[in-house]
Specification:
This protein is an alpha/beta fold. It is built from 8 helices and 12 strands. Strands 3-4-5-10-11-12 form a 6-stranded parallel sheet. Strands 1-2 form a two-stranded antiparallel sheet. Strands 6-9 form a two-stranded parallel ribbon. Strand 7 and strand 8 (about 135) form a beta hairpin. Helix 1 (about 40-45) runs parallel beside helix 2 (about 75-90) and helix 3 runs parallel beside helix 6.
């Protein structure tokens, strides 16, 4: 237990302890611009005694949203709000990274001017989006074009730059929990027949395009990644999950990321023999960094 209170270096950051505040959606952004408020500044600065704070998922663009009142990283009001948050967190002695988020098919027409949500393929998620009318089922999405995929990669790049310019100490790419990056990884949600679908190499291309863009923009030492290899939330996972995630995690060693966050299975996986119950025990040794 004492080790939790000892310092550790991850990337460019010297953490005073090993307690990290997990990214948790709060739905507290303002109604006009989805910008952080004084409540965000109070909430996060109260947690500044932790070694590191991960922000709630911050949508990288207006079309990345799937839940109301989520503070993004794409307009001036949001960046102004985050600057206020980071000023208070730093004054309280804290460090904080922004989690870059795109919900993909886990969204609703409310967020797309009545249109369909963007996804790798037109396959409905068994999930719920949070709208002004409460939780609503996610309808069938539409398949992104290759050009649109490139635009989303650029959205991640821009959001990473906006995060650093707003005072964040780094960024985390959200590649977990059934959202857009994971939708591309899994063959149950990605049935494309172009360079972003089919083989594991192709299905992981979107993830690595984003990693390339973000690390090019803000540096690998200020970039981390969240994966959930045994996830069944918002997804049916992949038919070859172990092979997929072993391949992806080994390839991450080509990058000098600050750290890799692996989410443990949130349920008993009996009946899902292709998934790993002990995520850290199985996949952790494959990654050379923290």
């Amino acid at each position: 237990m004492k080790k939790a209170f000892t310092p550790i270096t991850i990337g460019t950051l010297e953490l005073k302890n090993r307690i990290i505040v997990a990214p948790m959606t709060r739905n507290r952004a303002d109604n006009d611009y989805d910008a952080p408020t004084d409540l965000h500044a109070e909430y996060y600065s109260q947690r500044a005694s932790a070694g590191l704070i991960l922000s709630e998922g911050a949508p990288v663009s207006p079309t990345a949203r799937g839940y109301i009142n989520t503070a993004g990283l794409y307009n001036d009001q949001q960046l102004k709000g985050w600057k206020h948050v980071l000023k208070k967190v730093h004054a309280s002695g804290g460090l904080m990274q922004a989690q870059l988020w795109h919900t993909g098919r886990v969204s609703h027409p409310y967020f797309h001017n009545g249109g369909k949500s963007p996804a790798p393929s037109a396959i409905k998620a068994e999930a719920m989006a949070y709208t002004p009318d409460g939780f609503q089922e996610t309808p069938e999405p539409r398949a992104l074009t290759v050009g649109e995929i490139g635009e989303i990669v650029d959205d991640f790049r821009t959001a990473a730059r906006n995060a650093i310019d707003s005072g964040f100490d780094g960024v985390q790419i959200h590649g977990a929990n059934g959202y857009l990056v994971e939708q591309f990884l899994h063959d149950t949600s990605n049935t494309r027949n172009d360079k972003y679908g089919g083989s594991i190499e192709n299905r992981s291309r979107f993830l690595f395009d984003i990693i390339d863009a973000v690390t090019d923009e803000v540096g690998s030492a200020r970039t981390s990644l969240r994966l959930s290899p045994s996830n069944l939330f918002n997804t049916k996972n992949d038919s070859e999950s172990q092979k997929l995630y072993e391949t992806v995690i080994k390839r991450l060693n080509d990058y000098d990321l600050a750290y890799l966050e692996l989410v443990e299975a949130i349920a008993d996986l009996e009946g899902h023999p292709h998934l790993v119950q002990d995520v850290i025990g199985h996949y952790g040794p494959l990654f050379n960094g923290p």
